[in-house]
Amino acid sequence: MLDHVGIQVRDVEASVSFYLNVFAPLGFAEAMRFPAGDSFAVGLAGSSGTPDFWVGGTGSPETREIHIAFTAPDRAAVDAVHEAAVKHGVEVLHEPREWPEYHPGYYAVFLRDLDGHNVEAVCHG
Asked: What is the DSSP string of 14-35?
């Protein structure tokens, strides 16, 4: 259903660094970057190499929380995202665990990004 997702952030470089460091266990890498106004738009890719997740600048503060869940290949990758988040001082909303209320096998960690958004790494194993 979705081709790609883009979010606007206060500090593009800091946010790109956040996503590359914390979600490195999921294979995140910078795939594209181009000027956009006074800032940049940066496309991040997972193992496919396709920039499916975009980060760009905004001229105003975000007033609503966004929730984004990134696919992890297995529980070890979810745990590795959690470890990277803790290492980088990221706020952990919910530590990795199974969420049976969603469905059996739903294993996820929930984090707060630099702009206050709820970001998740999840596997459905």
From this structure: HHHHHHHHHTGGGT-EEEEEEE
